Amino acid sequence: MTIPPPPALPPEPPVRDMTVGELRALVERGDVYRAKSVFELASRAREDDRAVDALGELSRLPVLRGDRLHGYVSLAWAAITGLLAAETPRARETAYAAFAELPPGDRDLFLTYLRVDAIEEAHPRL
Fold first, then answer.
1. What is the pLDDT of residues 9-56, one digit of tens each?
2. Residue 102: which domain range?
3. Does a structural domain hold residue 31?
4. How far apart are the first and last CA of the chain?
5. Residues 6+ away with beta carbon under 8 Å from 16
6. C-beta separation of 47 from 86 below 8 A
7. How far is residue 29's CA from residue 96's CA, in Å, rounded to a whole number?
8. Would 8 be classed as within a structural domain?
């Protein structure tokens, strides 16, 4: 039995040229490039409060919480990590609130992943 090749991926979107709203929509519709959108929003979070708000809201979506990049690391964790890395008061407060809404077991694993005892101690870099 021969396994057929996977279908071709759609063209990669120009995430750097997209608006926050377009990036958010890409994630919300479950696009194959949703992770690229989350990472682009994270790269903008230091300078753009709209990106901060989008990451905070997206991190609460069940699909992102269940979308594991590898092992236990979810796309919601990536969004929260991006907020923490932005190091602005608004981004960090948004990260703390998003973290508090993760299921308890997920919070514990995330703290272990970040190698901290409390979310406020985390200062990741992108």
1. 899 999 999 999 999 999 999 999 999 999 999 999 999 999 999 999
2. 17-121
3. yes
4. 44
5. 40
6. no
7. 25
8. no
> CA-to-CA distance for 93 and 87, rounded, in angstroms?
10
* Residue 88 falls inside a structural domain: yes
Residue 66 host element (H or E): helix 62-66
Q: How many CB atoms lie within 10 A of CB 107?
A: 14
Total of domains in the chain: 1
As given in the structure block, the two tokens for residue 7 are 């279908």
The reply to whether the predicted model has a pTM over 0.90 is: yes
Is there a domain that residue 6 lies in? no
Phi and psi for 102 in degrees, rounded to 5? Answer: -70, 150
Distance CA 48, CA 61 (A): 21
Contact (CB, 8 A) for 98 and 80? yes
Token pair for residue 45? 């979070």
Query: Which residue in this structure is represented by tokens 């409390």?
Result: 118
